[in-house]
Amino acid sequence: ASRTRGVRAAPNDAGEVRAIRTMFGRVLHDLADLYAEIEATLDTIGVPTVVMWGTRDLFFRPEQGRRTADAIPGAELGTLPGCGHLVPKERPEEVAATLRKLLAAH
C-alpha cells in the first residue's frame, strides 16, 4: 500500500484487513452503537455538506457513507475508490478540491 504523509493508505490484501480487524475487534464491535448517536443528529445539519467516504474503509462500509449522506438534508456523497478511513490524510488534494467546489457553489 502507498503512504501519504506518514499515514498508510488502505490495506491491499485480505490478510491485512483481517489483521487490522482482529487488532481493533473490540472497537469495531462497538462502532455501530457509537455511530448511532451521531446518526441520530444528522438530520439537524443545515449547511451545504459533502460526505466523503473511502471505498476501502475498514471501520465503516461504503453503504454507511450513503446512509450518512441520505440522512443529511441536501448532502452529496463523494466516494473515493481505494481510499481507507482517513480520507483527509490519504487524499488531501481531493478533499481540498471538493471543499473548494462546495464553497464556490454556495
Task: Provide an overview of this structure.
There is one protein chain. Strand 3 (about 50-55), helix 3 (about 60-70) and strand 4 form a beta-alpha-beta unit. It is flat, with a radius of gyration of 15 Å. Strands 1-2 form a two-stranded antiparallel ribbon. Strands 3-4 form a two-stranded parallel ribbon. The model is unreliable at about 1-5 (pLDDT under 50). With about 110 residues, the protein is an alpha+beta fold. Helices cover about 50% and strands about 15% of the residues. It contains 5 helices and 4 strands, in the order ββααβαβαα.
Shape: flat
Strand content: 5-15%
Radius of gyration: 15 Å
Regions with little confidence, pLDDT below 50 for 5+ residues: 1-7
Global mean pLDDT: 83
Cα-to-Cα separation, first versus last residue? 36 Å
Report the biggest beta sheet as strand number plus sense, adding barrel if it closes.
2 strands, antiparallel
Structural class based on helices, strands and sheet pairing: alpha+beta
The number of strands is 4
Order of helices and strands: EEHHEHEHH
Helix content: 40-55%
Helix count? 5
Q: Order of strands side by side in the largest beta sheet?
A: 1-2
